[in-house]
Structures are given as C-alpha cells and as structure tokens.
Write a structure and sequence with these properties.
heterodimer, A: about 425 residues, alpha/beta, TIM Barrel, 8-stranded parallel beta barrel, two-stranded antiparallel ribbon, about 40% helix, B: about 290 residues, Rossmann fold, 8-stranded mixed sheet, about 35% helix
Chain lengths: ~425, ~290
C-alpha cells in the first residue's frame, strides 16, 4: 500500500482581532457576528478553493473539506458546496469530505443523495466521512439533544447505507426519521458505496463501530501525534482484540505541517500563524465542549478530565513555537526534518492516511503554497512507501475512480463553447 | 451527648418499584405525622434536574403537616441505569403515572395512600413533568403545587443555558446566595481528586443528559398548548431572586393555567426548596389542604 496524503483546508477566518481571546468568549457557537465580513469572504473562499485545486495539481492523493457551524476557524457549514466546486475543477485527487454530520440532515437521506452526486460528478473520487459531530456543531448550534445524538447518528447511518445498497424502493421506519419511499437517485459510482471514514475525537464506542463495518477511523485532533499516540494505541489494541487485519489503511490522522527551506525559516515564516491558530482559533468556551449526555459514561471513565478544571482553561495561552514543535502539535522545519518526524508519526500511529493541515490560521496564500509545494516535492515521495507491500487490503479504504471519467482539463473550455452550427427552426 | 444521640431517625423509607415499562425506580416514602387515616392525602413529589439533594426539608415538612409524601428518584438519578427507556416528554409524564400506579396511588378510596386525594408537586424539571402528568390525567389529581417549573420559553426572558455552564458556574445562577449553593451542590467535594471528579462527571453526564431530553436546547415541549386541560387548582411558588427561570415566568404560567395562583418567596433563587424550605412548606401545605 502507499500512504495517502490528503491536503486539508479547515477554512479559518483570517481576521480575528489581536484581542480576540480577552474580549470574546468563544470562536465557536456564539462568535461575534460583526467579525464576519461577507465581501471579504468572497476573496477568502476563492483563495481557499484555489489552494485545494493547487494541491490536486501538486499530486496530493486527496483534497479534504469538513463541516463546522458558527465557527471562526471553519467557515464551511456545507462542505458539499466546496466539494462540488472541486469535483468539477480537479481531476486526480480524491474528494475527501470528512464529512457530513449525518444526524444533522433532515432527512439524513439527503447525505446519500448529495454524496452520490459528488461521486458521479467526480467520477468515483469521493471519500465519504460520517462524523458524529462535535458538541459545538451538533448540540449547541444545531440543537440536537446530547443524550440522543449517538442513537440518531446510528439510525442516520443505517438509512444512508441502505439507501446506497438496497436496489429496491423501501420504507424506513426509524425513531428519528420515517420515510415511506426511500429510493436514492442518483446512486454512487463506487459500489457498493464510497469508502467511509469516521473522524473521531476519542469516543471509544466509535472504534467498534468502525471495525464492525470495516470503516477507516481517523483521529482528527489539533494536539499532534505525540499526544495522539495513547488514543491510537487504544484503537489498535481494539483492532487486535477483534482479530481484524492490522492494515494501516484502517487509520488516519490529522497533522499540522509547516515545511520550509530550513528549520529556522520555518519558525520565521509560520510561527505567527500557528500561534494565531492556537490562541485565537481554538479559543472555544469550555462549556460548549462537553454537554452532559454527549459523551458516554464509558468514554468519561476512560478519559482525561483536566480540561474541566478552572486552572486549565488557559492552557494554550502559554504555548510558544518551541512548545508547539517539541510537543508534536506542529511538524515543522526543513524537508529533511519534516520527513523524519512524519515517518516517526506515521509509524507510531500506524496510519495509512494523513490529513495534512498545511494551511492554518491566518497563513497567507504564498506561504501556504510554498509549504505545500515543498512537502509535495521533497517530503511526500519519501513517505509513500513506508508500509511496503505487506497489507493487501489497505486500498479498501481509498476511492476507486473510473478510468475514463470526465476531466476538467478537457471540459473547461468546452463548457463555454458556442454552437458550431446553426440550429434548425424550433418546432 | 454525641452526634449519634441527636441524629433524627431517617425521615423516609426507600422502596424500589419496577414499572410495567420495565424501569426500576427507587421511591422515597415519607410517613405523614399521625399516620395514615381514611382521609390522608398523598403528594407525589418530583425533583428537579439536580435530583434529591439531601434531607429534603420540604418533603419532611409536608409529612410533618400530615401529608403522605411519595418521592420517586427519576431514572439516571439512581444507580439503576434504565434511563435509555425514556426518550421524550410523553415518556417522562407516563413514567410519573407508572410510578404512581406501582405505589398504589391511583387505587380507590380506602385502598391506598391516596384515599384522601392525590396531589402533585414538582420543582423545576419536576414541575414540568408534574404539569404534563396533570394535563394527561387531570381527573386523577386533586391539587398541584409547582415550584418554579421549567417548560415555557419567553423570548424576552431567555433562560440561561445550564448545559453550557461549567460546574463551578452553577451556584451563581441557581441560588440567591451562591456560597450556600456551592455547598449544597458539591457537598464540599474536592474536585482536584481525579476519582471524585470522574464520579461527578459520570453523574452529571447521566443526570443532566437525561434532563436534556426534555430541557435541551430550549426547555419548552409545548406544554402551553395542553395547559387548558390542567383544571386542578395550582399554586406556583417562585423565588424572587430566581436567576435561572426568572419570576416573569410565574405570570406566564398563571396566564396559561385555568386555575392558578402565585406566591413569590423572598431570599430564594431557583433552588428555593433548599433556600427557603419553611416558606415553601407553609405555602404548599396551605394550598394542598385547601
């Protein structure tokens, strides 16, 4: 198998003020609406979508988008809108929508339909993510009852999967969704369905769900690979306990990466943007992080509770560039430094997919492109083959596009073509 | 004289019932002063989202005034983990009646504790449930007392979001005197100890998660559309310093219910049964005894 690299853009708002952390309660849920400038957003959305297209050009295996609501570091409440643009304007990379918070769609069948559309438009390049969703998005923004969220999520999953795999019209009698005629039209190119990724944040029930259904489990955290190892070790222990293959394709991880000519240049170019991200973009009111009932009792008993102590609410305020790099929050430096640490990360966590966070915070376009190009040209090639040929099933967790799919390089000009011959009279 | 010598006998006995739905519920039973006679009335009392917090001076006070008191512990507030069987407002209200049935409170005169009539009382979330129970079966209720019930939403008086509060922020909102509140809520527990914190977080997840089924994200399950059915005389008791569900809601409840009166209590916030128990007992006893 080859390690897959997905260039991911969270789409942060780049203009959070210097005093954001002291003058504002939260970057998420109740973020100050006056900080958003729609005319500025016109340029930002296009810049971010251009970067995703550039990543396709650079040869990243995937380009990734996700869903957040009322969030200053993710102005993408509908990732499918962005993905539709990318599906039309790129030709190679997987379109990784990681993902749609399926319990939030009414009915969740909408996800089956929109993902099928994306798979058709992209020629079978969709990687479909089904997150339970964060409490900020799912509960506080979209009003789902915390204690019932997981049950609703599983029901939504069952509906979508049956919609994709049952060739007949069927009735769905759920507790949360009742549909008399389910008939997914269109259907996805990838059969029986696109690869499913479950982004997790530490709920241990999610591991078994992934393993029972043969889905990829991707740990999406901003705390880096050193902090992520304990959780991923727990996941792999569970894989082993359930006697599943130990293929790295089962797992993904999100890592912030900054590549430059030298280690010193990395600090010079990127430190202010990383600190912007950690100090402003992650300034989430802690009361939004854990509504009672969202996490299961089992997960609470297994987890760390330090974040709920008053004295730990200010943790990120004290972080410096050195802390971020040494703590593994950010893998930064020259191509050699980055390759060495990435190899350590991929092997430690045993992952087959890396979600590369190469644009973060308020990083300007040129730095994003510079870091992304260096990584693609000087780091990625040396990492792809880490796992060799040992795991034959690893590509089960990646998309399988049509060979003769429509490609934008052939169609972009054609789309604006005038009729070549006059038409006959209209009847 | 030692502390043991002066400790009063437990004010209640706990029995455990399993409803026909299959939910196991501990129930506190407070014997009325003077024992049960032919015309003893019983109060079915429902706790708020904090559960029963200790001695429950209000319940003991009602019993001392001659009322039988039956006080179920709601699923998730006990060690019995049956809360997954109840999902929504209808389930909650029916569970209240299921417990009343198991406790014999609906049997005919002379056969059960309710021979002198069955009253409902509830605090906050418990008041919301009691009101729904009365809307479902008004003929089974003699009188009702609601202590600052949840269940309505006024756009001009938004209720603070308890689900987005950190544990150390609760006392300020719930009590007229936050220092008293801190002690009542935590029992002086030391949260720097990981086991204590874990126990607290597990209890919070179960209990407030359960409460969220009828209170999240807005504590309004359209009771006001059913309020017309609650023809029983109802007393609304409210703390004047209630910063969670402010006294403006007392007016809204009074307007919605066909036969309601309001009593405001000084020196009490949302946790008025714990801050002004004597005043609550006096008001409720007077109302229930007609």
């Amino acid at each position: 198998m080859t390690v897959k690299f997905c260039w991911f853009n969270l789409m942060p708002w780049p203009d959070l003020p210097d005093d954001f952390k002291t003058e504002h309660r939260s970057v998420w849920v109740d973020i100050d609406g006056s900080l958003f400038d729609p005319e500025r957003a016109n340029g930002i959305y296009h810049e971010y979508m251009d970067q995703l297209e550039f990543a396709d050009e650079l040869g990243y295996d995937g380009i990734g988008v996700n869903e957040h609501h009322q969030n200053g570091y993710g102005i993408m409440p509908s990732p499918n809108i962005i993905a539709a643009g990318l599906a039309r304007r790129t030709s190679q990379a997987a379109i990784c929508v990681i993902g749609n918070s399926i319990a939030l769609y009414n009915p969740p069948h909408r996800v089956a339909e929109e993902f099928a559309m994306l798979d058709c438009i992209s020629g079978g390049r969709l990687v479909a993510g089904f997150p339970v969703g964060t409490p900020m998005d799912t509960n506080f923004t979209y009003g789902q009852i915390p204690a019932l969220t997981r049950e609703k999520y599983y029901e939504a999953h069952d509906l979508i999967m049956e919609a994709w795999t049952n060739p007949d019209v069927f009735a769905f009698d759920g507790k949360y969704t009742q549909l008399r005629y389910v008939n997914c039209w269109p259907k996805p190119i990838q059969q029986p369905h696109p690869p499913i990724y479950i982004p997790g944040g530490g709920s241990i029930e999610t591991w078994d769900f992934c393993l029972e259904n043969n889905y990829n489990y991707s740990y999406l955290s901003f705390n880096g690979y050193l902090a992520g190892q304990t959780l991923m070790d727990g996941y792999w222990n569970r894989v082993s306990e359930l006697d599943k293959s130990m293929s790295p394709g089962r797992a993904g991880f999100a890592q912030i990466i900054c590549t430059a000519a030298t280690d010193a240049e990395a600090e010079e170019l990127y430190s202010e943007h990383m600190l912007y991200f950690f100090n402003r973009c992650l300034h989430v009111f802690p009361g939004f992080a854990d509504p009672p009932g969202y996490r299961t009792v089992k997960t609470i008993q297994a987890g760390k509770l330090d974040q709920f102590r008053k004295e730990n609410q200010e943790l990120f305020k004290r972080l410096t560039w050195k802390d971020l790099v040494e703590g593994g929050y950010v893998i930064a430096g020259s191509p050699d430094t980055v390759r060495e640490r990435m190899e350590d990360m991929i092997k430690r966590l045993r992952v087959g997919t890396v979600f590369c966070l190469l644009h973060m915070g308020n990083m300007p376009d040129w730095k994003t492109r510079y870091s992304s190009q260096l990584f693609a040209e000087k780091v990625m090639p040396g990492l792809r083959g880490i796992w060799g040929d040992e795991f034959a099933d690893a590509d089960d967790w990646w998309c399988n596009p049509m060979d003769d799919r429509v490609r934008p390089e052939n169609t972009m000009a054609d789309a604006r073509r005038y009729p070549e011959a006059p038409r006959g009279p209209v009847a | 004289m030692t502390a043991t010598d002066t400790a009063p006998a437990p004010a209640f006995e706990e029995v455990v019932v399993t409803t026909r739905r299959g939910v196991t519920a501990p129930v506190r039973v407070y014997e009325p002063a003077g024992g049960i006679s032919g015309d003893t009335a019983t109060v079915l009392a429902l706790h708020g989202a904090g559960g029963w917090l200790g001695d429950e001076a209000v319940l003991a006070g009602l019993a001392a005034a001659g009322l039988g008191v039956v006080a179920p512990v709601w699923p998730a507030w006990s060690e019995h983990t049956d809360e997954d069987r109840l999902s929504d407002m209808q389930d909650f209200a029916l569970h209240g009646w299921d417990v009343a049935t198991e406790m014999g409170l609906l049997e005919g005169a002379g056969n059960g504790a309710a021979s002198g009539g069955l009253h409902l009382m509830g605090h906050s979330m418990g008041g919301m449930i009691a009101a729904e129970m009365a809307a479902l079966a008004p003929q089974s209720v003699a009188r009702m007392a609601l202590l600052c019930p949840a269940g309505m939403w006024l756009g001009d008086h938004p209720i603070p979001d308890i689900f987005a509060m950190l544990p150390y922020q609760l006392a300020e909102v719930l009590f007229a005197d936050p220092d008293v509140g801190e002690e009542v809520l935590t029992g002086g527990a030391d949260f720097s100890d990981n086991e204590t914190l874990t126990r607290f977080m597990v209890a919070r997840a179960r209990q407030q998660g359960m409460a969220g089924k009828i209170l999240f994200p807005i504590p309004n399950r359209r009771f006001s559309e059913r309020a017309y059915r609650v023809t029983v005389p109802t007393l609304l008791v409210w703390g004047r310093q209630d910063r969670l569900i402010p006294p403006a809601y007392a007016d809204a409840w009074q307007a919605a219910l066909p036969d309601a009166t309001v009593e405001l209590v000084d020196g009490a916030g949302h946790m008025l049964p714990y801050e002004q128990s004597a005043a609550v007992v006096a008001a409720v006893t007077t109302h229930l005894q007609g």
